[in-house]
Amino acid sequence: MEKIKVGVAGLGFIGPAHIEALRRLPDVEVVAINEFGNELAKAKANSLGISKSYGDFKDLLADPEINCVHICTPNFLHYPMAKSALQAGKNVVCEKPLANTVKEAEELVELADKSGLVHAVHFNIRYYPLVRHMRMMREKGELGRIHSIIGTYLQDWLFYETDYNWRLEPDKSGESRAIADIGSHLMDLIEYISGLEVTAVMADFATIHPKRKKPTKEIETYSGKMLKPEDYEEVPINTEDYATVLLRFNDGSKGVVTVSQVSAGRKNRINLEISGAKQTVNWCSESPNQVWIGNRDKANELLMRDPALVHPESAKLISFPGGHNEGFPDTSKQLFKEVYKAIREGKQPSQPSYPAFGDGLRELILCEKIIESHRKEAWIQV
Ligand SMILES: NC(=O)c1ccc[n+]([C@@H]2O[C@H](COP(=O)([O-])OP(=O)(O)OC[C@H]3O[C@@H](n4cnc5c(N)ncnc54)[C@H](O)[C@@H]3O)[C@@H](O)[C@H]2O)c1
């Protein structure tokens, strides 16, 4: 079987994670990478054992061997890169957020739909097997009518005023930070699992550090701890470190999410609790191989990830037997398995099982409404 050839753009934190996941698929081969400038591109390609490197994205798109492009660059580059990749006839897997504005995302959805090419957004958290299991529990009526959804996504990598990254600059990251960066995953999970639509939002943001110390040299995500005090300059910060958003859903049920990038000790913790008329389910990304099931009239349960114990639809996302834990790197592999099946079949399915550009647009719509709500201090209809 001829392998599907792939090019990956942006090799900071998540780009190499895409490559590692792609290398676990038998019918896919990463043949080239693109980084900012020829020298960096060559160095990254060498370190990852990839033969072709391009310092300009246009050259990667001109490579006729490449069938699919993964976009893993900072947010502001997603729109222009995804647009030019589709125009060059490449299938596209784009990191979240799909673009920086709703207008850009709408244009990408239209272009992608017209092209017939395969398009996906890397909402990989959906691919923890027990996340899909919770969705299947809801679909099969095991939760009953949903009463409430409570989600948190907490991190601490921007805890100190000396912590810095391009995500703190709106021209690179967009108008919202914590909501767009990690809230997007949480909102996507909530609608994906519950099958409900958010119809109104009421948001309250906080910027814990209105000024931060910016390093005078470029750094990659999560590598800021290496710098010394003399390497910084003070800059104003205009995006949120923390946000709480009240949610109303289309069936009248309610929810709330809190996101923070300044919660000491919480490295990257998603916690989601959905209470229904029959049961409650709780899942946490720090112990992703178990889901807690709460009962009123009998003992609570703890379901371990095991292909023999979950619904068959979720067992499809499990590659190892129970007790052999799977985690974050496995989620991308499972998402890419579904995307590359579509690429091999030659078209975007009408109802893809994976998150597509339309799902990316949905998150941007929610994000813009959340920002509007915070600014106006009012409920905003979605
Ligand atoms: N799905 C997830 O779980 C997840 C996790 C982390 C990041 N992300 C997303 O991935 C994207 C990248 O995040 P990151 O944490 O890897 O950032 P990063 O800063 O660590 O890496 C970005 C890389 O892009 C490169 N780059 C910058 N400009 C470029 C250009 N013009 N051409 C080619 N390469 C260029 C940089 O040199 C750097 O290596 C973001 O949009 C982020 O939201 C998603």
Question: Would you mind describing this structure in some detail?
Answer:
This protein is an alpha/beta fold and 382 residues long. 32% of the residues lie in helices and 25% in strands. The protein is built from eleven helices and 17 strands. The chain has helices at 14-22, 38-48, 57-61, 78-87, 102-115, 129-139, 170-173, 178-194, 312-315, 328-345, 357-376; strands spanning 4-9, 28-34, 52-54, 68-71, 91-94, 119-121, 146-155, 198-206, 211-215, 232-236, 242-249, 254-260, 268-276, 280-284, 290-294, 301-304, 380-381. The strands form three sheets. A nine-stranded mixed beta sheet has the order 16-15-14-13-7-12-11-8-17. It is globular and about 65 Å long. The mean pLDDT is 96. Bound molecules: nicotinamide-adenine-dinucleotide. Residues 9-15, 34-36, 57, 72-75, 77, 95-96, 122, 124, 166, 181, 220-221 line the site of nicotinamide-adenine-dinucleotide.
Descriptors:
globular; Dihydrodipicolinate Reductase, domain 2; 2 domains; Rossmann fold; six-stranded parallel beta sheet; binds nicotinamide-adenine-dinucleotide; 382 residues; 32% helix; alpha/beta
CATH-wise, what's the superfamily of the largest domain? Dihydrodipicolinate Reductase, domain 2
Bound molecules: nicotinamide-adenine-dinucleotide
Q: For the residues shown, what is the average pLDDT?
A: 96
Would you state the CATH class of the largest domain? Alpha Beta
Taking the sheet with the most strands, its summary is: 9 strands, mixed
Low-confidence stretches: none
Which CATH architecture of the largest domain is right?
2-Layer Sandwich
Helical content class: 25-40%
Number of E strands: 17
| Total domain units | 2
Radius of gyration: 21 Å
* Beta-strand content: 25-35%
Annotation field: number of helices: 11
State the order of secondary-structure elements, H for helix, E for strand.
EHEHEHEHEHEHEHHEEEEEEEEEHHHE
- Give the overall form: globular
Main-sheet strand order equals: 16-15-14-13-7-12-11-8-17
